[in-house]
Amino acid sequence: MSLLSFHDVHALYGQARILNGVSFDIGAGERVALVGRNGVGKTTVVNTLCGVTRIERGHVAIRGKAMRDLQRYTAAQNGISVVLQGRGIITNLTVEENLLLGAATGRRGPWSLASVKQLFPILEERKASLGLALSGGQQQMLAIGRALMANPDLLILDEPSEGLAPVIVDELAELLVRLGNDGMGILLIEQSVGLIRRVAERFYVLSKGAVAASGPLADIGAEEFQQHIAI
Ligand SMILES: Nc1ncnc2c1ncn2[C@@H]1O[C@H](COP(=O)(O)OP(=O)(O)OP(=O)(O)O)[C@@H](O)[C@H]1O
């Protein structure tokens, strides 16, 4: 079943059209990478899902249903969690308060304060610390933990490896593969070829606001793939 699809989406910030007919599809338990050079519109895909842009043509569908009026909360209410670029930690709330924000939709499932802290024990150790006191790696764990608290069917991560030590990126890769194997869809927006290759089964390349190439990762050579995302 399709969890999230964009159908020929043209989207604008004000008068600036950034997406020029984006189409892609992610099914349950699929691990998909969305890649492209800096500034091609990858984050704008997330912003469009979250109702930040104006859709001029085309539509976004969640579980096959066209969403007419996308708002910031639409994705979360429909089982899609987003880990924003820059992590979006509320710095003047504690770690535990940040985590509880993720549970606001009330969706049931395997993820709770207890299971998230079991996955990331540092979040239990630092539960009373303010978000701003965490290191970059800890903030990323908090952002992912908060996204899991919503018990999503699809997890979208925008540049999650940014600023992380290689050992933490390795752990992140293992976690995302495991979540996918447990049935969660993963949409990974990334520049790190290593992380993409370890996590994703399929890819879409965005160029000039549209999908320029797509297919299984196994079918594309390392050099050709690198060219698509070279900065
Ligand atoms: N709020 C905004 N208003 C107007 N233009 C914007 C806004 N946000 C982004 N843009 C522009 O939209 C284009 C696409 O930006 P976007 O952040 O989606 O790219 P990206 O592919 O995610 O890039 P990066 O890899 O650098 O994160 C850029 O030209 C950017 O300047």
From TrEMBL:
Residues 4-229 form the ABC transporter domain. GO terms for biological process: L-amino acid transport. The keyword Transport applies. It holds the Pfam family ABC_tran. Keywords: Amino-acid transport, ATP-binding, Nucleotide-binding, Transport. GO terms for molecular function: ATP binding; ATP hydrolysis activity; branched-chain amino acid transmembrane transporter activity. InterPro entries: AAA+_ATPase, ABC_transporter-like_ATP-bd, ABC_transporter-like_CS, BCAA_Transport_ATP-bd_LivF, P-loop_NTPase. PANTHER family: HIGH-AFFINITY BRANCHED-CHAIN AMINO ACID TRANSPORT ATP-BINDING PROTEIN, HIGH-AFFINITY BRANCHED-CHAIN AMINO ACID TRANSPORT ATP-BINDING PROTEIN LIVF. Belongs to the ABC transporter superfamily. This is Amino acid/amide ABC transporter ATP-binding protein 2, HAAT family (TC 3.A.1.4.-). It comes from Bosea lathyri.
